[in-house]
């Protein structure tokens, strides 16, 4: 995945969590309602066939963004490698 694609994913993730990070005084009930609504919704996730986001995924993104003090880079996808892929040397 190239840098531009990673940035598109980070922007998408921010769009999902913006309601939580832009409104610091969300009440617990409102927060849970928003998380539930967003987890029930179908999404067009960039570069993915998946269409659903779990509550825990969104909470993780919120936490990462807040811990970074609002840096979009915190929402970049990690560079994971498949553990079953054979290394070619």
N-to-C span: 21 Å
Radius of gyration equals 15 Å
List how many beta strands DSSP finds. 0
Structural class by secondary-structure content: mainly alpha
Pattern of helices and strands: HHH
Q: Would you identify the regions where 5 or more consecutive residues have pLDDT less than 50?
A: 82-89
Biggest sheet, in brief? none
Secondary structure layout plus pairing:
Elements: H1 3-21, H2 28-40, H3 55-67
Structure description:
This protein is mainly α and 89 residues long. The chain contains three helices and no strands. The chain has one domain (3-72). The protein is globular.
Question: What characteristics describe this protein?
Answer:
single chain, 89 residues, mainly alpha, 0% strand, globular, disordered C terminus
Describe this structure in a few short sentences:
The protein has helices at residues 3-21, 28-40, 55-67.
């Amino acid at each position: 995945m190239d840098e531009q694609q990673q940035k598109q994913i980070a922007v998408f993730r921010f769009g999902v969590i913006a309601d939580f990070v832009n409104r610091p005084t969300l009440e617990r009930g409102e927060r849970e309602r928003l998380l539930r609504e967003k987890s029930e919704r179908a999404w067009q996730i960039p570069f993915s066939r998946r269409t659903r986001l779990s509550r825990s995924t969104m909470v993780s993104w919120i936490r990462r963004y807040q811990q970074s003090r609002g840096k979009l880079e915190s929402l970049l996808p990690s560079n994971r490698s498949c553990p079953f892929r054979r290394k070619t040397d």
